[in-house]
Design a protein that fits this description.
There is one protein chain. The chain is an alpha+beta fold. The protein is built from 17 helices and 12 strands. A 4-stranded antiparallel sheet has the order 4-5-3-6, sandwiched between helices. The chain has a 3-stranded antiparallel sheet with strand order 7-8-9, with no helix packed on it. β1 and β2 form a beta hairpin. α14 packs antiparallel against α15.
Amino acid sequence: MSRRHDRLFDQIANFQALHAAARRAIKGKRKKPGAAAFFANLEGELLALERQLRGGEYRPGRYMAFAVNDPKRRIVSAAPFRDRVVHHALCAVVEPIFDRGFIAHTFANRIDKGTHRAIEVYERYRDCHTHVLRCDIYRYFPAIDHANLKLDFRRRIACPSTLALLDLIVDCSNPQEPVHVYFGGDDLFEPFRRRRGLPIGNLTSQFFANLYLDSFDHFVTEVLHAPYVRYVDDFAVFGDDLRTLLNWRLRIERYLDGRRLKLHPRKTFVSSCAEPAQFLGFVLCDGGHRHLPEGNVRRFRNRLRGLCDRWRARTIDIDDVDVRVRAWIAHAEHADTWRLRHAIFQGGRFDPAKTLEAWTAPCRRVVRGGSWNNTPDNLRSANRNRNTPDNRNNNLGFRLGRTLAAGAGAITVASGVR
């Protein structure tokens, strides 16, 4: 029986904890109007928030929802800044209690975990097995059942005030995309009676999403004894026997039915580990090679061009552009993207007036080729000849460079003695 923790609320609803939570919540958002207004009267706001929490008068504010279509359509909800402070204070106390019971191979929104560590474990399992069962949960965040989630809170928390605050945050979730799915024992109106869905964008929603599948993680690793890695609702199960994997899929589906979740019909499949696989934003190939999907690069190119336009219009600082670009590059450097990163950071420095324009402009694409020389390898622009300084030869060759400009092309021929 897991230990249930009591007397937690005083660690959440006190001035010092709320002040530290406000400092964490404002990171990267100092220029947002709501955050700036809150910090303009920080002491008064925190004292009022503490008083409301202790008196049971706290009520979450209204979410601001907007649609994001990158890479697929999602409804993202932004809570008022004062609510984000409460979320940070709550998670700082409650999340470590549950995190200790999470399995090692769930990687989303956890300290010392993350996307790249999940990929490393995926590659390690892939190299040891012949088949992989790739699974994705159908509309995971909109489908999370509130009643089941509240029962999960009570497995480890016994503090009535903390449970009331957790329940309040769940109950005040704004409406999400409809998920009309029936399960065993449901009548005609059951899917419409049950409250479902968590707002994407909340710190608490990220924690609740991990917690909601915690029992499933233990089922796969301790009952099925399967090699397993999960990141939010995207997970992979590895095995050497195809029949065993198909049987595991049926048992997984039955277990998820009890959590009122369904596997995505198109994104759930069994494939060979020898085939390239797209996982968490990378295309993973044999030999440890990783590539960025073309769509990811295209979206970043468009985003970079938009940042360039805003920088020229003086609506964004160069430091803001640099931070956003370097954040994406930090992700891209885990793949085979040396040429891409060199094109953006020529000489190790980012200059939107030069580097950015050179990489994003569609009319600056250059096609190279052509050589009269003794080996085909000399065609490659990446070829480097490692001769000694006193080496001399009279090989005659040339290289063609064609710039594909809009409407017309310019051809330049360079020749010389190699």
